[in-house]
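INFO batch 0412 | record 1 of 1 | parsing
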Amino acid sequence: MIEIQNLTYSYEPAEDKVGGLILNGINLVVGKGEFVAVLGRNGSGKSTLAKHINAILLPVGGYVMVNNMDTRDEEKVWDIRQSAAMVFQNPDNQIVATVVEEDVAFAAENLGVPSAEIRERVDYALQAVGMSKFRKSAPHLLSGGQKQRIAIAGVIAMKPDIIVFDEPTAMLDPVGRKEVMKTIGILNKEYGITIVMITHNMDEAVCADRIVVIDGGRIIVDDYPRNVFSNVDKMRQLGLDVPQATQIAFNLKKAGIDIRSDILDEKECVEELMKICR
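INFO prediction complete | emitting tokens
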């Protein structure tokens, strides 16, 4: 679905070209139906990478292919943005209508989709995010998590193959984050949509099939969540945290307690502690 080869990018030309690069030789392949989380400290280049997948930004060097379409091909930009949609941090920036179902229909209308099909797409999208009963509601009366799910529904109505999420839960409370992550999981596992998610939340990254860590414009790690987070020292060197359950296990192991180092969530942590306490 996504093939990135030797991608380089700089926001401003610099005399020292290498020193001015935000992305410096990125190579990444994302398969159909995968859920990939992209991590990195502030300024690492992860959001810049996300914008290349949607052709918001274009490579200085290398190339990005989305569904076998080159993002540098101006004639393909419209098709690329239909195939790979984006959801940003603030849902208020993506909500444009005063009624939920009208907002969800907005992008499909702009694509010139026939009215009868728009109705089907709106129904499909609202059902996918669990917001059908709010179709007649005013978006400004909804919670942050509900607004973000409406923003996601508007993207789903375009029927994309890929959705790129740029820190979709950053502005939400814990309840809203849980709602949105559940929705993303459903879109990936039940609807088969390929997901690329930029996040700072390590507990959310655990849900991904793969984790890609970017630092200094380069991919430093590309591996399964269990392998990535079990290396706590390396994550700390990269300026990143690990899930809380992983940190607890790491601290217990340092204290001399025989416990697995690859624990990812609360359930696994409790199970291991119960074994120790028996």
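INFO post-check: The mean pLDDT is 91.
INFO record closed
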